[in-house]
Specification:
Layout (H helix, E strand, L loop, with lengths): L2 E2 L6 E2 L16 H5 L3 E6 L6 E5 L6 E4 L11 E2 L13 E8 L2 E6 L6 E3 L2 E2 L5 E3 L5 E4 L2 E8 L2
Parallel strand pairs: 5-6
Antiparallel strand pairs: 1-2, 3-4, 3-13, 5-7, 7-8, 8-11, 9-10, 9-12, 12-13
Length: 147
C-alpha cells in the first residue's frame, strides 16, 4: 500500500515525496511516530509558544479561562485576548487518533480552521508540521520537534 494524500486522497507510491495529483507534500507514518513534542506558535505575538507532549493517551483542550468560572483549559488563550478574539472556553481539542495528532472542533461558535479550511464539529483532522490553526481570530502554527 502506498501513501495516501491527506489533501486529495490520492494514493501515491511509497517513494513519492509530493502527491502526483495535487502536489501536496506527503507525510510518512514513520516520520509522525518519531515526533514527540508539539509546539503551537501564536501568530502575531513574538516568542509565544505553547509546548506540550504530542498526545498519546489523553488529549489537550484549547480554549480560554473565564473570570466567572474555575475552569482552565490545558492551553489557555485568555491572556491573548481570547474572549475578544472569539475563542470559546472549550474551543478545540488535540487528540491522538489513528497513530497521529488530530485537531477536533468542540462545537465552537466562531469555528476552527486548519490551513483556511473550516472543520466540522466533532470531526478529527490530522495536523502536520507547518499547518496553521485558526481558532476564532487567533492563529497558531503547528511544529513537531523531537524531545
Amino acid at each position: 500500500m502506498g501513501i495516501v494524500c491527506r489533501i486529495c486522497a490520492t494514493e501515491n507510491t511509497d517513494d513519492t515525496v509530493v502527491c502526483r495529483q495535487c502536489g501536496a507534500e506527503l507525510q510518512r507514518p514513520d516520520a509522525l511516530r518519531s515526533k514527540k513534542e508539539l509546539e503551537l506558535q501564536l501568530q502575531g505575538y513574538e516568542n509565544v509558544v505553547f509546548k506540550v507532549e504530542a498526545p498519546v493517551y489523553e488529549g489537550y483542550i484549547i480554549g480560554r479561562s473565564d473570570e466567572t468560572s474555575d475552569y482552565r483549559p490545558d492551553i489557555d488563550l485568555a491572556a491573548y485576548g481570547g474572549r475578544d478574539q472569539g475563542i470559546s472556553r472549550r474551543h478545540a481539542a488535540l487528540v491522538y487518533y489513528h497513530g497521529a495528532t488530530h485537531l477536533v472542533d468542540l462545537n465552537s461558535v466562531n469555528g476552527t480552521f486548519v490551513n483556511g479550511t473550516r472543520l466540522g464539529p466533532e470531526t478529527a483532522y490530522e495536523l502536520l508540521h507547518g499547518d496553521t490553526i485558526r481558532l476564532g481570530n487567533l492563529s497558531l502554527r503547528v511544529l513537531y520537534t523531537d524531545n
